[in-house]
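Sat 14:20. Reprocessing the chain from the morning session after the first attempt stalled halfway. Input below, unchanged.
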Amino acid sequence: MVSSSSPPPLAHAISGSLGSALALMLLYPLERVRTEMQASAMSSSPTRIIVDGPSQKEEVARSADECRMELDEKDSPQSASISPASSNESWVPIGSQSEQQSENKISKSKALTSIDETESLIACLRRLQSKGELYRGVSPVISTLAISNFVFFYANQIMKALFAVDKQTQTKKQVSRSLLASSLAGIINVLITNPLWVANLRIVQGRPISKSESKNATLWREVQAIKRVEGISSLWKGTITSLLLVSNPVIQFFFYGQVKQHLLKRKRKLQVNKQNVSISPLEAFLVGAIAKAIATVFTYPLQLAQVLLRLDSNNEKGDRSPYLNTFDCLIRLMREQGLFGIFKGMKAKLLQATLTAAFTFLSYEQILQLVHGAFLIVSAEQRQFS
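Finished this time. Tokens:
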């Protein structure tokens, strides 16, 4: 039997799933730009080489993409052989060049790197649009997000029911149990849905393993391909980071829940009908946006590491060695790109995350009322026939 005062966990799960899917469909270009700008942190990893000058050896740091561009310049009378630095070697000698040539190439490298690092959100949008890649991966991302939010909202309500306390219990105890419930729900969600996130991120970035086997790389085919080619453990890449990032939705939902309860208490004091009290769509939008912004700022470096670890491939033969773990990823980013390297793409993430969360909570509250009403009707009909 469904209670008239509180929606069942399934109602919350359906509402959260549909709300997040609708929000992402509306704002997917921002999600695509966010992923692109975060993934660019991986391609910006420098390649270390030595230029043999007449008097000394000079160390040069360049991005792998720029090195490949220079290899294509066949008109140079003195071509250089460039090899990426690996975990076992930090110096790779190349052919003899003049100091003037090396300085020109270094200045060109810095200019190209500067342009790449300062690409604006609008410029990235235009670039993806011109290449026809703005909506690449929209289907698997929305499917994964809908499944992930269904699991989280359902688990969150179940955990809240398990740790429920009466109204006379101290507020501090209520808050701590609410945080514990959200944390456990987040852990359950990560362990169940991480393979889906690994697969859809590969598809979005145009690096699916299943592409060689099928024209259309679907979510399920990609999961199967990763399992077969890289091993089942690759499906849980970035899981440790994701578990640490459970703090993100915990902060978000905790802040949202506390502010929502405060607003409802104020409204109950002012309204005569205290049973049918709910926050307005504008309140849900604003509180949801603020809650997500706070959570994003505090956890962004871990979110960036999560993306890069999920994109890392075991069989990748690129210009760098794979990341070992979250700590290794963050340290290498700081060494190669400075402190701001671990905040690369944060502006795009902040805009995308806050707007998506705002629209998610806006849709969630409205859909929840409709779904709860449908549950009450079905429950009433069942009682009549029983």
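The first strand starts at residue 46 and ends at 52.
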